[in-house]
Structure formats: C-alpha cells, structure tokens
From TrEMBL:
<keyword id="KW-1133">Transmembrane helix</keyword>
<dbReference type="GO" id="GO:0016760">
    <property type="term" value="F:cellulose synthase (UDP-forming) activity"/>
</dbReference>
<dbReference type="InterPro" id="IPR005150">
    <property type="entry name" value="Cellulose_synth"/>
</dbReference>
<feature type="binding site">
    <location>
        <position position="111"/>
    </location>
    <ligand>
        <name>UDP-alpha-D-glucose</name>
    </ligand>
</feature>
<feature type="active site">
    <location>
        <position position="140"/>
    </location>
</feature>
<keyword id="KW-0328">Glycosyltransferase</keyword>
<feature type="transmembrane region" description="Helical">
    <location>
        <begin position="21"/>
        <end position="39"/>
    </location>
</feature>
<feature type="binding site">
    <location>
        <position position="282"/>
    </location>
    <ligand>
        <name>Mn(2+)</name>
    </ligand>
</feature>
<comment type="similarity">
    <text>Belongs to the glycosyltransferase 2 family. Plant cellulose synthase-like E subfamily.</text>
</comment>
<feature type="binding site">
    <location>
        <position position="140"/>
    </location>
    <ligand>
        <name>UDP-alpha-D-glucose</name>
    </ligand>
</feature>
<feature type="active site">
    <location>
        <position position="447"/>
    </location>
</feature>
<keyword id="KW-0961">Cell wall biogenesis/degradation</keyword>
<keyword id="KW-0333">Golgi apparatus</keyword>
<dbReference type="GO" id="GO:0071555">
    <property type="term" value="P:cell wall organization"/>
</dbReference>
<keyword id="KW-0472">Membrane</keyword>
<feature type="transmembrane region" description="Helical">
    <location>
        <begin position="51"/>
        <end position="74"/>
    </location>
</feature>
<protein>
    <submittedName>
        <fullName>Cellulose_synt domain-containing protein</fullName>
    </submittedName>
</protein>
Amino acid sequence: MAKDICLPLFETKSAKGRILFQLYAASLVVSICLIYAYRVSYLPVDGGIEWWDWIGLFLAELWFGFYCLLMILVRLNPVHRYTFRDRLSQRYEKDLPGIDIFVCTADPSIEPPIMVINTVLSVMAYDYPQEKLSVYLSDDGGSNLTFYALLEASRFSKIWLPFCKKFKIEPRSPEAYFRTAIEPLDDPLKAREWHSIKKSYEEMKMLIETTTKLRQIPKAVRKEHKGFREWDFVTSQRDHKTILQILIDGRDPKAVDAEGQPLPTLVYLSREKRPQYHHNFKAGAMNALIRTSSRISNSPLILNVDCDMYSNNSESIRDALCFFMDDCQGHNIAYVQFPQRFDNLTKNDVYASCLLVTCGVEIEGFDANGGPLYIGTGCFHRREALCGEKYNRDCKVDWKSVNYQGKVEGSASVLEETCKVLASCTYEEDTEWGKEMGLKYGCPVEDVITGLCIQCRGWRSILFNPERKGFLGVAPTTLLQSLVQHKRWAEGHLQIFLSKYCTLWYGHGRIPLKLQLSYLPYSLWAANCWPTLYYAAVPSLCLLQGISLFPKISSPWTLPFVYAIFANSLYSLGEFLWCGGTVQGWWNDQRMWLFKRTTSYLFGFID
C-alpha cells in the first residue's frame, strides 16, 4: 500500500519516429539554404524591374524559411500523456474535489437551446460523485427560451443520469447517443428502458424546438417556475438586470434523481447588460461565472466548455484529476487542455475545419516545449491560477485534508439574490478583473492571452489527448464560416504579437525560450499573407514579361526547389494520414491553406 502511494498518477512518453523527422527536417533546411545560395549567386546586376522582382521573391523565401524553422521547432519532440485512473480511485476516491463546470452560450438563434442542453446533460452525467458537481450555464443572450430548455433538461436529468450510470453508456449527450446507438435487442430490460428514455427525450426535444420556433413560452409553462418572472423586466437582450436561478440545489436532500441519488447543482446565469457598458464578450461571461460560482459552490477546479462541445468521455474529470492530484508533479499545474475535436464533418472535410494536424501534432509539440496554449474550451482550470494567483511552493494542496464542499451557507433563494451583484455591470470597476484576474479583456483570442499570462506567472499547463476524445463539437461547415473564423483568429494572434504580451518580451525570463518561439507560428499567421500573395502572383506575372525567376529544368539548381516542394508535400501528406485523415482530405487542407493565407490572414492583418 505504501508503495502504491508513491506511484505517479500519470506518465509522459516521447512520440516515436523522431529520428526520421529530424533527418527530414535537416534535409529540408539544407535545401532551403541552397535556394538562398541560388538567389544570392544569380542576383540580376542590371537593376530594373527584374532586380526588384528577384529581391521580392528572395524576401518571401526568407520568410518561408524562417516560418518553416518555427514549425520544425514545434514538431521536434511531441509527447503523449497517459493517466492511471485506478491509482487515483485507490488513493483519493473519498477525497475527490468539487468541480465547477461552465457552459457558455450567447445567441439562441445561432446556438439552438436543444444543442445547449445536450451539452449540459453530457457534463451533468460524468462518472463522478454527483454531489461534487456544479454546472453553470452562462446565457449572454438573456433568452427565456434557453432558460426554458434548461428547466426541461433539469427534469429530464432525473431519468437520464441513472440510465447513463446503470448501463455505462457513451457518449452521454442524449442527441449524440441516440443518433449513434443501436437498440439493445439482446437485453430486454435495457431495451425497455432504452425505449422509455428515448421517448422521453424526443418529447422534450419536440417541446423545446416547437417553443424555440414560435419564440414564445406558453403561459401555462411560465407559471411553473418563478424564474420566468425575471423576463417581465427585460427590455432587450442588451439591456436587462442580472438573472440568476438555481434550478437544482445539490445541497438540498430532496434534489435527487429517479433512483434517489443526489443530483448535481444546476445554475442559470444571464449577467447584467446595459448599453453604456462594454461587456467583453465570452471573457466577461466567464469572469462573471468565476465570481458567482465562488459564492455558490467554490470548487477548486473549473471546467469550461462551449455550448456546442459536448462531453464525449465520462471519465474526463478523473483523467484531469490524475494531473492535478499527482503528489510529485501536480502542484504547479494550472490547467489541463483537451484538444478540439468535431463530429459534424464529412470524411474528407471539404473546408479543412477539423484542425487535424494542429490538434494531433502541433499542440503535442507545444506541450513538450513548456505547455499547450489555452484554446477556450475543453479545459480544466485550477481556480486560484485562473483568478490571478502566482505560483509558489505554498500552492501545493493536501487534497485529503482540504474539504471544499459544504462551505457555502444560505438557501437557494438567498444565494440567488446575494450573487446577482457579482454579475452586475459595475462590479468590475476599479478592480483587476480582466487585467490580472480571470480572463483577459481587449483581444479577440482572450483564451490564448489568458493562458500565456498564467504560464508567465509560473504555472504549467498540460495537454491530454486520450484515445476516446474528451469533447466533440461543431465546426464551420461552409467556406464563409471557415474563413471568417480564421480571420478572427489571425487578427487576435497578431494583436498579441504586436502588444506588450508578445511572447518574445513578455515571456522573456518567465517561460522557456522554446515555448516563447512555439507561440510564434500562430502569432504570425496573419503576416503569412504577404509573402504568399507575392509568391502566388508575381512569378506568373513575370512570365508574361519574359522574366524568369527560377532556374531552368536542365540546371542543377532546380534540385533544391524540387526537393523542398516534394519533400514538404510528402511529409505533410504522411502527417495528415497518420492523424487519421484521407488523401482527399489532405488535398482539401492544402487548398484551404491557400484560401486562408490570401483572404482570412490578409483581412486579419489589415484589421
């Protein structure tokens, strides 16, 4: 038993095949150097337009070479993490900490309430002591339709949660489960219950979708819960007071499911909105949740997910705890990031929305270089790190001696009133919220800059990419959606690079140099537009003028160009296939690479 206490709760292994990659990278660097040698050796001496075209192409190639080195650095030594949940259970089962789960939504017309509650139900059904779970839904749209859907979900959870645990089903989003599950004909008991639960879900879904379509709550329904009275004072979605309703109070002995087991706490929050105040989008909503939850449940760990990203793995909490609660390596971990994965894409992913290589290779390399960036969803946080505390040796927690539950007193109705001020427009005035506390304000990618600041305060971050994906979401499925999303990302990352938070100086002396450089490929996404546009357009235009910017086919100088093109293409194809993609999917990814660099990144750079 004493030996078991010393065993780690997770292990880290380097990825295989690194020697082959290093040989490829070295050969690619040699070919790039030879290309530079050709440009210098055959520089036109007569000046004129040909000289300027040549210099422009040389500068573009210098940029591509620099960017290639950054991408090599990110991929140089990726690592994989593995957890030991059995050891966690043996050591801490009776002392597991509370978990606050934040789900954020903003617009019921874009994010349908039925989708939102499927995410909520999936995180309520984790394989974890229910009394230690508190689920908060932040509705920045201030919609009574979303509130109604959550009310229906709170009732459905009384039969859904026991069903999930009894038959150990995956995934635990009702929509995703019934879409993929096969009727259990070999088990009459399960089949009967399966049909009953499915019928209940379809009835609830029909009610919610009908109400959403009519955009009106029936009078009979409005009388069922006092929370609907809050909307009597709502002027508009952008002008209303704080609406806070505790739909399930986990401390209440009567808050039990159909089998008498306790239910998780379930809270609806729509923070105060006034036209004269800037609300800071998702970052503002998250900070309001952090403050409100600190008064209601105050769990030491926080999971945040977007409303379109349901839990696909009921063991994700235990996996994350293996990192936080490891006796030797867990005390300085601020957050555990799960990769973004999607379940609404076709096999060949026409618009390259799956981020296959980014999540399958690049972020694992990021992890090896000092810790992954925070991507805004599917992330477990240590509350104190998210609230701005710097890491020091005193941050080490004795999980067995600290009981975070039962600290909050007062009835649900009292908490609803006293907590409203924490989500008001004026609460953050003359405070450090949005600056040193909570998520950062003033940047389109507030998640990335928040993660960077946490790392610069001495904390570590971890990427965990389990075999069964932790979360599955909805990716853009049209060309416009994809390009607009990448435009926002590119703009936000460049904004960070051009601000005081640039990793090269803000991170200097605070995070490893490898991690500083690992952020740069994303920070410089937008800057890629200019060399790409030049390389794509100018050589073709020069041919019309009889100006050749490349060596003749018969010249040996052709070899480094040919090698760089084919070696890079073959490697990227192999990498894409290794991550689970297809040849057609890779081709679509290459096509979108050019689209993004000549549109999204260009407009992101200009903005």
